[in-house]
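User: quick one, fold this
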Amino acid sequence: MAAMAPTDGETISLAPMTGESVADCVIFPKEQSRTVRAAVLAAAGALGVAAPLVAAPSVSVPAMASAVLVGMAFAGGLLSTWSPCGYSSLCLLRPHGRYSARSLAGFTPAFALHGLGYALGAAILGGALGFAGSLIGFSGATVWALVGLGVAGLIYGAHQLGFLRVPYPQRRAQVPHDARQRFPMWFIGGLYGLSLGLNYLTYVQTPILYLVTAAAALSGEATLAIALFAVFNAGRFLPMAVNYLPVSDIAVQNWLARRQESAAMVDGALLVAGGAALLTLAAL
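Assistant:
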């Protein structure tokens, strides 16, 4: 397994990359962090309640619910960059040699196939969940669907901010790193894209994935479920474009590592705000 990015000894606490051992939450070590996190939780909850109330006179409840879920899906995809697979993909799928038009051209097939893998993963996972939801009889943003999603958002937001410990079942594994010795980079790009695009074959450190999964199933429509996962996967894929810039891998990895704690804070805040917003919409 590839090593995680350097942590500067202060911002993250992750288990070694050996087997099924990926940690599911950032541990906040700073003394003042609990007070800060409590303030973030309260502010996020208040914002989540206030925003729908302000928008209610001019925007319908279904439209607001869709906006909340789509926004959370895209943000969740971006935040998944702070998972082990996000670090690994950024450092393994890079242009070879000196930065030049030729090296970027050689990198482009891997980049394109990586995106195609994400798109295929969204179609497979979203289609399956939407079809299953239609068979069960789910029909979109009902009151009870909004309540369920809202409560899940609040619980996992508190989990991500370190106030609760709740079950976080996922396959605690990374993309197959030995593939880089056996296949060309363009193939690895597609393989990684599909593995990550299916979202449950590897570990994703943001619980927003759970809300996206539940919302996709509750939609009861394959097209809507695919669209929701396409947005989530677009957020996962777009950070790979940083490899087109003349920046070193170590610079990117260090930038991510220095912001690991902040990313987890944003993750928790989004979950709390989104959960509070969905519960408010259920009451309107």
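User: anything notable?
Assistant: The first helix runs from residue 33 to 55.
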